[in-house]
Amino acid sequence: MAESLAKRYDPKEFEERWYRFWEERGFFTAHPEEEREDGERFCLVIPPPNVTGTLHMGHAFEDALMDCVVRWKRMRGLDTLWLPGTDHAGIATQIVVEQELAKEGRARHELGREKFVERVWKWRQESGGVILKQLRRMGASCDWTREKFTMEPALSHAVQKVFVELYREGLVYRGEYIVNWCPRCQTALSDLEASDSQHNGHLWYVRYPEAGGDGGIVVATTRPETMLGDTGVAVHPEDERFLNLLGKKVVLPLVGREIPVVADPFVDKEFGTGAVKVTPAHDANDFDAAKRCGLPSLLVMNKDGSMSEAAGKDFEGLDRFEAREKILKLLEEQDFLEKIEDYEHIVKHCGRCDTVIEPYLSTQWFVKVKPLAERAVEAVEKGRTKVVPEKWKKTYFEWLRNIHDWCISRQIWWGHPVPAWHCACGECVVAGEKPDSACAKCGKDGWTPDPDVLDTWFSSQLWPFSTLGWPEETRDLKTYYPTTLLITGFDILFFWVARMMMAGLHFMKDVPFREVYIHGLVRDAKGHKMSKSRGNTVDPLDFIEKYGADSLRFTFLAMATPGMDVPLNEQRVAGYRAFCTKLWNAVRFVLMNLDEEAAIQKDAPSSLPERWLLSRLARTVEEVNASFADYRFDHAANELYHFLWGDFCDWFVEISKPALSGGDAEAKRSAQSTLLLVLDRVLRLLHPFMPFITEELWQKLPASVRDAESLCVAAWPDTEESWFDRKATDVMDGVKSVVTEIRAVRSLLQVNPKEMIEIAVLKNDTSEERLSAHGAMISHLARLKYSLVQTLPQKGIPVRAWGLDMRILREDEEFPAVRARLEKSLAEFSKQHEAMAAKLANPLFVERAPVEVVEDTRAHQSALEKKIPRIKEIIEALR
User: Fold this and answer.
1) Who wins on pLDDT, 476 or 819?
2) Which of 176, 550, 667, 856 is a plausible cystine mate for 690, CB 3.0–4.6 Å?
3) What's the burial of 353, exposed, middle or buried (CB within 10 Å: 0-12/13-18/19+)?
């Protein structure tokens, strides 16, 4: 059987082969037609990646989590649906296609809207969906027969129906408000599409003279170009410094327009001078304040970021930042600029083209979300949807309870068209199909389609039910809604999760998912967020090419502490690549030592090590199942890692060698049976974490062990209560403690691992009993010969473990050299310990360093605290 498994672990040899096998056999396909009891189905929808996208570390992490759960549920026998798909990503996709056109020396306006949209569809057919192919490289076991795209006809129909119904209910309306506006993309943006960045700018203090008087008021601003649109100056109503100016007017510098001084509580008395300019058309807070104070709005910019006619002839046509420089120069020349301060503040940029965003007064379509939000809050409060970790509930509640109406229109060409029609009079609007008669309100004939498209999130909010066939009453919809679980990042908790809750409750009258697992972000080894601007992004496909998909998946899952970010470095991935190699070599060893008739025996093993290993396996199964139930992927992964590497490979495989090579046929049969049984169970347990290597290895086990065509549909192990053996565990813990102590001293003494050492053991009832029963195993594992003595010799290295008092016997001439080496090591370890103690005593290190670094430092310090006294004891014994 040795030839059935290659000598070297090479994931390139089998990963893609096994994925094709799984997909071709239909193992990932859900079966709603099967009769099932409640709780025997599992459904999870993928957060749809952008059709423009490629796999990045965030996707790889998230999809490893999802696939792990899905494979676990599938092996437990549940009818499992993991529904994949992509989002049309309106702005991002339009930019990509515009860039393709630019290479040809063309612009979208030359093509016209219809031809441009045709071009986008062509691009999507040729290049879109790349990320879904890459997800296969990660092992994502999605039901590809149900793959969806947010712009396909059925989902577009759902979007139109939702818009029309909300419009007729008065929850969708058209109005004027401040939006995030990108002058380059020339569209409104959602908050998620507007990224915040810290900006080292200035605070300019400008004097507004009092109309007809000698006084005036000084305001501070970070955007002097917008002052041309000021319609007032505001102060806090309780600020006594300005009470004498309330109701009076000041003159707007450079313009000469008189504007009133008003009082409004939105003003921060501590900001600048305590007086602020009010520019209603270019600031959201100013817009709201202007409504309360009865101030008009004046739009002084065009949609492309240039100054408009309303800005005045001296500035019309200038770019906004050019206008800023000219305004500042004129303010200084005319003695209106009081002073300038350095000022660090947040500036929003377009997440697609990085252009500085402009708060901009615009007529848009909005959703009135307050009534929808109230039901979404109530559903989580009453436990209809559980949020894990619970700390995110507070954030969810705070956002929904302070929610603003949602701007859902975008001024681009790629996306779901707003299903509304404008009457020839320019005032009347209807939603739905194009009317076939004159306007019922004004009597005019002729209808024009609304030019806008809907925000990408408007269609994405329907994802849990539109993908299942809604508004049709499909079998999938009846079977799988509400979905069981959603796994997503905290960064879209508001923009997607909350909106899906609102949409699901409103249209399906039930929550869209029973549980939401919120994960953190993948960061670099120093804890920094990965970004192109930092230059610290890593392509997961590069890691897969170098280390294999299983190594990368296991790294993510072993570090997936709920709600915590994941600091990723290549050393961790390389370390789990070594774990794959360890598993590979262990299976290869077992296969090389199997007889043709080797099989799993029904009778329980009698040897102590075998009973101990099965007890540890039972405990591992129990821990893994409990960890899965709590979404503690990290606990489950680390439990399996330690069981396989430690209990199985380092201990039992070594213990089993005498039985496998000896002349006792019964001992050999029992050892082979236990090795096969444990390997079968471990490969099943590891499969959700490392699907490729486990499938390759499981298929090499004897046919009598395998109960399915593939490991991905094999039965998940249950906890075998009869395997728990407290006595065997206690005895083996004792044996291991003796061997571990002796190995530690051997290492300190730098004794060749193959060298047989001699030890003297103090003779008493305990040592006689324990060595009589287990001395042979200890001798084999620790590479030693022992003798029971009435009195321990003075010369020797003391070792104490499991009630045994021992001395490792060495030649006298070795002692001086060994002692000198240990004294040098002691000095180095003591120095390291002092440095770590100082670090951990520094609050800045504990608070600011990545959690992983702090924990590694604590673990290293703890290990040294055990090692240093032991070295001192050995040095003393060598004197």
Assistant:
1) 476
2) 550
3) middle
Tokens found for residue 717: 């192990």
- Residue 458: is it exposed, middle or buried by C-beta count within 10 angstroms (0-12/13-18/19+)? buried
- Per DSSP, 52 falls in state T
Cα distances from 71 to residues 359, 484, 617, 713, 782, in angstroms, run 46, 14, 20, 8, 40
Query: Tell me, what's the pLDDT at 814?
Result: 74
DSSP calls for 78-121? -EEEEE-EEB--HHHHHHHHHHHHHHTT--HHHH-HHHHHHHHH
pLDDT at site 605: 86
Calpha distance 391→518 (Å, rounded): 10
Strands 148-149 and 172-182: unpaired
Contact of 489 with 519, CB cutoff 8 Å: yes
Angle among Cα 650, 655, 659 to the nearest 5 degrees reads: 145
Q: What is the pLDDT of residue 440?
A: 84
Judge whether 568 and 57 are in contact, CB under 8 Å. Answer: yes
The residue-averaged pLDDT of 401-417 equals 93
Burial class (CB in 10 A: 0-12, 13-18, 19+), 161: middle
The confidence band for 843, taking pLDDT boundaries of 50, 70 and 90, is confident
Report the candidate in 720, 771, 741 with the shortest Cα–Cα distance to residue 616.
720
* pLDDT score of 3: 45
pLDDT digits 0-9 by tens, 606-625: 899 999 999 999 999 999 99
pLDDT at 414 over 60: yes
How far is Cα of residue 715 from the mean position of the Cα atoms in its chain?
A: 29
Task: Give the length of the chain.
Answer: 879
CA gap 166, 155 in Å, rounded = 17
Confidence of residue 395 (pLDDT cuts 50, 70, 90): very high
- Decide the pairing of beta strands 249-251 and 85-86: unpaired
Q: Who's near 186: CB < 8 A, 6+ residues apart?
A: 303, 304, 411
Indicate the pLDDT class of residue 533, thresholds 50, 70 and 90. low
Which helix H or strand E contains 758, and what residues bound it? strand 757-762
The residue behind tokens 């320019």 is 426
Q: How far apart are CA 44 and CA 513, in angstroms?
A: 8
The answer to whether the beta carbons of residues 352 and 185 sit under 8 Å apart is yes
Sequence-separated (6 or more) residues with CB below 8 Å from residue 657: 780
Report the alpha-carbon distance of residue 54 to residue 52 in Å, rounded.
Answer: 7
Q: What is the average pLDDT value for the chain, to the nearest integer? A: 92
SS3 817: helix
Nearest one of 366, 364, 414 to 185, comparing CA atoms: 414
Phi and psi torsions of 768, nearest 5°: -65, -45
- How do the residues of the chain divide into helix, strand and coil, expressed in percent and rounded to 5? 50, 20, 35
Terminal Cα-to-Cα distance of the chain (whole angstroms): 54
Write a three-state SS string for 298-321. CCCECCCCEECHHHCCCCCCCEHH
Tokens of 61: 């992490």
Q: Is 169 helix (H, G, I), strand (E, B) or coil?
A: coil
Confidence of residue 535 (pLDDT cuts 50, 70, 90): low
Say if residues 169 and 89 touch (Cβ distance below 8 Å): no
Which comes out higher in pLDDT, residue 813 or 456? Answer: 456
**pLDDT above 70 covers what percent of the chain?**
99
DSSP string, 191-214: TTTEEEEEEEEEEEEEEEEBTTSS
Listed range (87-101, 143-157, 805-819) with the worst mean pLDDT: 805-819
Q: Which residues partner with 789 through β-bridges?
A: 762
Angstrom distance (rounded) from CA 604 to CA 851: 44
Token pair, residue 606, equals 């009698």
pLDDT of res. 1: 40
Q: Which residue has the tokens 């287990």?
A: 774
Structure tokens at 636: 């489950």
